[in-house]
Amino acid sequence: RAKSQGLGSAVEFSQDIGLQVRERSHLLRDLRMAFDESQLFLTYQPKVELATGRVVGAEALLRWRRDDGYLVPPDRFIPVAEQSGLIVGMGSWLLQIALLALQRFRAAGFPNMHMAVNVSPVQLRQTGFLAVVQETLRQTQSEASALEIEITESVAVGGLEPVIEILTRLREMGSTVAIDDFGTGYSSLSYLERLPADRLKIDRSFVQSLERDDHGSRIARTIIALGRELGLTIVAEGVENETVGRLVTALGCAEAQGYHYGRPMSEEQFLEWLQVHQKEIA
Ligand code: C2E
Ligand code: MG
Ligand code: MG
Ligand code: MG
């Protein structure tokens, strides 16, 4: 009986994997089609300076809306895009779209805003990544300082040296680098010290725990203190209410993002947001 149970679960297990593989290949097929049929688009979320409420930049966040209206979460389709290499072409495309949107935001009376773009490790390590960035900056007539690249600590997998080299060159060009979601992945305090960066974004799971004052909140406090020690500008992610906004300000975060300030919005909505809300925040 034990034996047959064992066999049963082995069969189930392999069926399960078969299902996952099939789902993945369907998702990849659909994603390729989505890219060709412009089901992909960007949304923009404001990043504000806590002391003044001034908007300092926007983060471009990718969206996929299927024909039936269903929004596929980025956390589901980005890994598929990464594993298939599709992220490289998608990444170049969205860099251009994001920088064009930024031109409109800047022209609307916010000439110092920057655009933060999430870059996957595969994309960053791709030969020619820097050339694509330079070419896109040139084509869109953007200053290098208008662009911030967001990376996660997972870039360290596969060797830190080439990554340090690329990030250093980006910063020499005048662009900035943010370390995203720090503390959620393969965190190593030494990465934080070695990665050339300007901003450190505290993951929303830690930020939100500040209100509960639990284990996560102690991690948040520690990461903030460490980041400040290293001279990084600290950004709190996922601030959803005023209480948390005050807490992160008191702890030394300079900037914040979150639903409390603004949700990810279409380009048009963001332009309206800039006009209406930016003076109300502080
Ligand atoms: P991320 O870069 O850390 O982005 C922040 C995520 O938090 C976004 O989720 C955003 O919508 C969400 N968020 C912002 N404020 C709040 C808040 O106050 N409350 C809550 N609950 N959530 C908030 P989203 O857009 O689903 O993106 C998830 C992840 O997908 C991103 O995490 C990023 O890692 C990845 N991603 C999104 N767009 C791109 C892209 O263009 N390229 C790459 N490589 N990755 C991307
Ligand atoms: Mg990000
Ligand atoms: Mg993040
Ligand atoms: Mg994330």
UniProtKB/TrEMBL annotation:
Top-rank taxon, per record: Bacteria
EAL domain mapped to chain residues: 24-278
Regions crossing the membrane: none
Name of the molecule in the record: Response regulator receiver modulated diguanylate cyclase/phosphodiesterase
Lineage: Bacteria, Pseudomonadati, Pseudomonadota, Betaproteobacteria, Burkholderiales
Parent sequence residues shown: 464 to 745 of 745
